[in-house]
Amino acid sequence: MIAQWGAVYYDWRLASAKMCANMSQMKAAFQTGKEQIEVRDAPMPEPAPGEVLIRVRVCGVCGTDLHSYSGHLPSMPNVSPGHEFAGEVVEAAEGFAAGERVAIEPLTTCRTCTYCLTGRYHLCPGRAAGGVQAGGMAEYIAAPAYSLYRLPDELDFELGALVEPVAVAVHGAHMVGVTVGERVLVLGSGTIGLTAILAARAAGASEVIATFRYEHQGQAALAAGASRIVEVEGAAGLASEDIDVVIETVGGTAPTVGDALRSVRPGGRISILGVFTQPIKMHPLGMMLKEVKMVAPITYCRPGLHSDFDAAIGILRADPERARALITHRVALADTAGAFTTAADKKSGSIKVQLEI
Fold first, then answer.
1. Are residues 254 and 135 in the same domain?
2. Nearest to residue 82, comparing CAs of 115, 101, 99, 104?
3. Catalytic member of 32, 64, 191, 341
4. Which domain, by its residues, includes 198?
5. For residue 213, what pLDDT is reported?
């Protein structure tokens, strides 16, 4: 009998040791080379003072992630990618209760410089973005408490993971002052193009025209609230339409900044949200002759009493199912490589690919 209890005790100690070992490890995705993604064990993050441990539930594949995946931007093989994510607090810390559902604004800043103190923390000289220090394509992440936004009941985790890209579009619309009654042209109907449609509508635009390359993108633009859609090849015909604001969302190597300049009315504004991976040609005389204001917004900030993240949550909360239509693929963390392959191939019908973690 003593021997049996001894065996049971030994088995319990062995299981306990394995459990502790597993608790110190998690699964996370890493980009190990051009178009190479692997999921492997990684150390569990240990929250520093002021940080909260988050169990990630959903993380989106972003266009910037795809630029790294294709080799057009540098990748970091020892850092998980991903900055569009939502999850739940693991244990009570920094004013958050265990189990609270949160979206994460993936910016780490100094909190003391002039930029941070005036709400322009996205320009902080010491800022770091998610996917640079640690990213959301992992089971757990430690994040500063100031970066967490509680999710309202109307928003589940997959909608919570859309807060970040919607906030990008909100910031882009803020920077050019989209206002009630204006005509807005959105170049591109990928994720940021579609969120730009949502943001322009929320700002009061009377008409939103969107360009598209693939049929499924055009249909998604209409579903997001575009008044009408125009194929990329037909965008030149928009030059006579008295467009107040153009929001460029394509980036890469596209000629869309020139398209924006041709399309916008004299005295109009252009917001460049697309990430360009090489220099582009643009004649400044065109800007001068039209006296066009052109800005290149980056990420998000707090322009007033409410942050761009607050505004994004409000947009999603107002019409959650319209936003949910952006999500075309849901993939398990174990198949992150497949998620990137799908997201990179627009002929697959993909718009927003999310990892369920």
1. no
2. 104
3. 64
4. 169-295
5. 94
Q: Is 250 exposed, middle or buried (0-12, 13-18, 19+ CB in 10 A)?
A: buried
Closest CA to 146 of 95, 91, 188, 212: 95
Stretches where the chain sits below pLDDT 70 are 1-23, 130-134
255 three-state secondary structure? coil
Coil, helix or strand for 229? strand
**Whether residue 67 lies in the annotated active site:** yes
Distances (CA, A) of 104 to 41, 310, 351: 23, 12, 21
Q: Are residues 181 and 111 in the same domain?
A: no
Tokens coding 199: 């943001």
Q: Which residues contact 219 (CB under 8 A, 6 or more apart)?
A: none
Q: Is 39 helix (H, G, I), strand (E, B) or coil?
A: strand
pLDDT in tens, 159-211: 999 999 999 999 999 999 999 999 999 999 999 999 999 999 999 999 999 99
Q: What is the Cα–Cα distance from 71 to 159, expressed in whole angstroms?
A: 29
CATH number at residue 340: 3.90.180.10
Is 174 assigned a catalytic role? no
CB neighbours (10 Å) of residue 198?
A: 26
For residues 87 and 141, what is the distance between their CA atoms, to the nearest angstrom?
9
Which is catalytic among the residues 67, 122, 171, 174? 67
CA 168 to chain centre: 7
Is there a single domain that holds both residue 133 and residue 199? no
Q: Is residue 218 part of a domain?
A: yes
